[in-house]
Design goal:
- Two copies of one chain form a homodimer.
- Helices cover 67% and strands 3% of the residues of chain A.
- Chain A contains eleven helices and two strands; from the N terminus they run ααααββααααααα.
- In chain A, α2 packs across α4 (59-71), α3 crosses α4 and α10 packs antiparallel against α11.
- At the A-B interface, α4, α6 and α9 of A face α4, α6 and α9 of B.
- Chain A binds a DNA duplex (30 and 30 nucleotides) through residues 21-23, 47-49, 57-61, 63-64, 66, 77-83.
Chain lengths: 258, 258
DNA sequence: GAGCAATATAACTCAGACAATTCATGGTAA
DNA sequence: TTACCATGAATTGTCTGAGTTATATTGCTC
């Protein structure tokens, strides 16, 4: 009876996503529910027939969504018991999708601090490695990206792309596939989810000089300087992010007990 | 006509895996083919009907396997073009499954070095954080695990479990969910895939003293000592791994051209 | 009370059809 | 010639409904 309505609802639901397939949107929705705590570790999701009924989708689509979540460590499903939300320790917290789901809903302050803590550990070391191993080709890519950042401002899409490319080239220069995977995924997820938050905060320092320092240290094959410059860059990013998140609660000291 | 035979083949194929489902074994097999280079980035996998035909499985099972691989960044599929192997930069190299697939077949020497490079960056810092933030409860867990390692040797299953528990408790004490996810996944995947390699190498140093040092530094809330002790531990692990990998080709210089 | 067999329940797998997406081709107009 | 637009074809995406398999629970036996 409601076939027309449900069909329209499905089309609508898909339209508001970028270009994800149906199973992708379901995985994303369930993933957000899990990482946001709406479903808690140990909880058992509804059965396949039940869940696919409610979502008005076929069991196929729902199952493929569950496979995606299982591949990211968020759930585990077994016959006779069902699909259970895994303990947080098993989640692949650094998976780019999981990361974006975490920071999409309520970027928990503590988690945000933890993430920057990790970045401050890894990225400076990556810069130091890049200073030791960079090739001329990667150096040129960094320089070109730097010019791109200068030409277009960071407020434009092209400018942000140049920024991404700068960091990407730097990571490539580190010559470590695992560091590349880790940092690029983290950086992309964080920047993606923080763009819209910073729209309302047009007050931004000029990022060029800080990037320039990293570039010059890498060019000079000076790992210590590269380490310091990169650490500074990450700390500035953290400042920008936290400032944009709580612009006025800074003075209320009582709220910072925890 | 070959229904009986194919059925037996399927049962056999499933039996040699641990407890993975059909889609899990397919994902694993395809994943190994990809990370080992048999399928190269840019390559397009056979169509779903074709591939599921060859593997003697339904399209459903094959598709769920592809979803798993896509969730780990190994492939990307679009209508009309097919399922294409993603460039290595998009792979989720730190996903525990991807990691185990990488080191299952031919643990490329360079990659192995890269992985230990990352561990030497992160794990000592994690130990330092643990020294600052550990609770008494986590301290007790570490101590109990240490006793377990002493009671059973590392050659036994119980001993290895105690070792895992020691590192797990240490990571929990670091209080950083991202570091926990990163390091536990890496450590588990590496130890899992290197166990059988070290079976033939019974020559193992006593690991207790080195672990003891980490424990005492964390107990004393001494981050610098914890950092040093943990770095030492990782370096020893690297030594053990590389030694067990090439125990006798060291002298035959000609075989190391490549 | 401990161990073992039957059972029920969930995920798992299969088969076949239809729909949606997107690249490629060719035709048309500027 | 070039740019643009409809058309077609190939592939993944989605749906339906059925049967199979694994496993926690229950109940029985010893």
């Amino acid at each position: 009876m409601s076939s027309k309505k449900s069909s329209a609802a499905r089309a609508n639901a898909r339209a508001r996503r970028k270009s994800l397939r149906l199973h992708g949107t379901i995985a994303r929705d369930l993933g957000v529910l899990i990482v946001s705590g709406r479903y808690k570790p140990g909880d058992i999701l509804n059965g396949e027939i039940d869940a696919s009924d409610r979502l008005q989708v076929s069991r196929t689509a729902y199952r493929e969504a569950v496979r995606i979540l299982a591949a990211k460590g968020l759930v585990e499903s077994r016959p006779k018991v069902g699909t259970r939300v895994s303990p947080q320790a098993r989640w692949h917290m650094l998976d780019p999708d999981v990361l974006s789901w975490i920071f999409e809903f309520e970027p928990d302050d503590n988690l945000l601090a933890n993430l920057f803590e990790l970045r401050k550990i890894v990225e400076p070391e990556a810069a130091a490695l890049a200073a030791l191993r960079r090739t001329n080709e990667e150096l040129e890519a960094m320089e070109k990206a730097l010019q791109g950042m200068a030409a277009h401002t960071l407020a434009s899409e092209a400018g942000r792309l140049a920024d991404q490319e700068f960091h990407s080239a730097m990571l490539r220069a580190s010559g470590n596939a695992f560091i590349v995977s880790l940092t690029s995924g983290v950086g992309a997820a964080v920047s993606w989810t923080t763009i819209f938050k910073q729209r309302h905060n047009p007050l931004r320092r000029d990022p060029i000089p800080d990037h320039q320092k990293v570039y010059e240290a890498v060019k000079a094959s000076d790992p210590k300087a590269a380490h310091a410059a990169m650490l500074n860059l990450v700390e500035l990013a953290q400042l920008d992010t936290t400032n944009s998140r709580k612009p006025k609660v800074a003075k209320t000291a009582t709220s910072a007990r925890s």
